[in-house]
Design brief:
28 helices; mainly alpha
Amino acid sequence: MKIKRELWFGLSLMVAILTVTAIFMPWSNMSNGHLGLLMLSLVVVAIMLGFPTAFTLMGMGVLFAWLAYRSGNPDIAVRQTLDLMVQRAYSVMTNDVLISIPLFVFMGYLVERANLISKLFRSLELALARLPGALAVATLVTCAIFATATGIVGAVVTLMGLLAFPAMLRSGYDIRLSAGAITAGGCLGILIPPSVMLIVYGATAGVSVVQLYAGAFFPGIMLAGLYIVYVIVLAKLKPHLAPPLPMEERHIDLPPTAAILRDKVSHRVLPGLIGGLKGRRNLGIPAGEIVRQGTVALLPAIALALFLGLTWHLATKPVPIDETTGLVEMGQGGGATESADAGGLAEPPADEESAGGVQEPKSNGVQEPPAGDVKEPPGAAKAAPPAAADAPAQPPATDADGERRPTPTWYWIILGVSAVTAVGFYAIFTFVRLEVFKMLLASFFPLAIMILAVLGSIVFGLATPTEAAAVGALGGFVLAAAYRQLNFTVVKESVFLTAKTSAMVCWLFVGSSIFSAAFALLGGQELVEKWVLSMELTPLQFMLLSQFIIFILGWPLEWTEIIVIFMPIFIPLLAHFHIDPLFFGLLVALNLQTAFLSPPVAMAAFYLKGVSPPHVTLNQIFAGMLPFMGIQVIALALLYIFPQIGLWLPEVLYK
């Protein structure tokens, strides 16, 4: 029987793990810490053999937790183990962060079934037709947008494999480049918010999901941009790998009104519409139709004007100035600088009678106060005028006249560049491009608005992730209804798949929680910490070591196993090396992109292979993913060298 190469790789890796465990484990002098390391290696091997991850973690965790309790008190070990299971399961059930997972997943399945992706890909393909490697670039942009909306890697890779892969192969694209663009673009959904992986990491590491979303936004955009730059440069240097889009593929049938205006007046939109209004009887075109076309054509200018107006409002907004006239610093005014003779409170004289400490009162008893008028204590009269003078306290005030600040120079630069860009845009804005713009309005902008609404409400603190996920789920309903895809079958399938995915994630958390507790009970965490600290690593060396381990783990394991098994081991070490868990999480999220692209458990490759033509081999798909894995490593290095790529937005918004 012939065994495939990737199967050989997996078997060899399992044998290597078991061999290392058998050689270095002190079988004659086993401590609880060594049992924890044995449990860790057995879990990895069992997952690679194909056992369900959640139940493998639970089974191993329960067994080794019983061993840990048995070493302390055998009589109550079973009861303690069962109590641990209940407590850990209950802690997962009460974790409100996890509520957002089924809502985001449900939103993704509804958007997936709204059939937006075909319209989105076609409109981007036409809009980017003049770029080198236009089909591959359109594939990456479509994958990034759709993966962001759904967060489901398998769904995005499968749909793009059915839609974009045949189109690229028909246009003469290289198989490896096409496969790499689809698989790498589909995996962006686990990095760009709203990402389920970031929620899982936040719940595991105790990091704010809101800050993770804000921090992961620019690294995700950076990675997608690096992919696009790579494809454009490769297509420019080697045109045979990504031929230009044929002219017949760029053809768009114009509506009759647009065709008349193009032929009789001008091929550009604004002159054509203006000439149509001036012509005799509007060239037989109703004026309302011309107005509607003009409104659509002016939408970019309207959006630009709104953006410039909002920018000017924020740039020239008056700065609140606190009025401090008449206020005196505490401890620096009034009687504090005057002598004791000026009145007020003074230290009692240190005479001989009082030198002995607190004295008993004289035995005359309680005396009535003198019959005379009660007099103010000395110094009160002198202290009163300043208090009276300060009585009318002035509230904090803004500028005297409420005048705005002068318009800064950078705003005029932005205004000039925007004006030149707008003029250039409308100079080349033809009726064909107007139809492409309409296609983008119908496919790209509704999805982008929904994504920005969900992300914006989270990032700017308007809603929690759970509330924003609920709004996103409602948006998925609206989109499916708007595209006439909302029916009982779609809702039933989406609910079933959402329940299935959410149950998998929640059982993973239960298994991970039990496994982590057993690992800590056995002292495995303490053993790992002692080993790492004994190496006397610098923070840079620790970061390189940890990210290298995560990169290697991505080859045999999926991101879920890496997050729930190994993050509880790394997180406690971060405080010793003064590493921000938020920044570490961003590095991990970027690094785990490789988990979907690295063989033998490269799930994106298997998703694509399942829908690709028969002549496309798995080795070709693997070969196409390797350059994109290299780009991921470059992005990881850039994020570490320039941490503000990920930390700038959280610092601006939340600190």
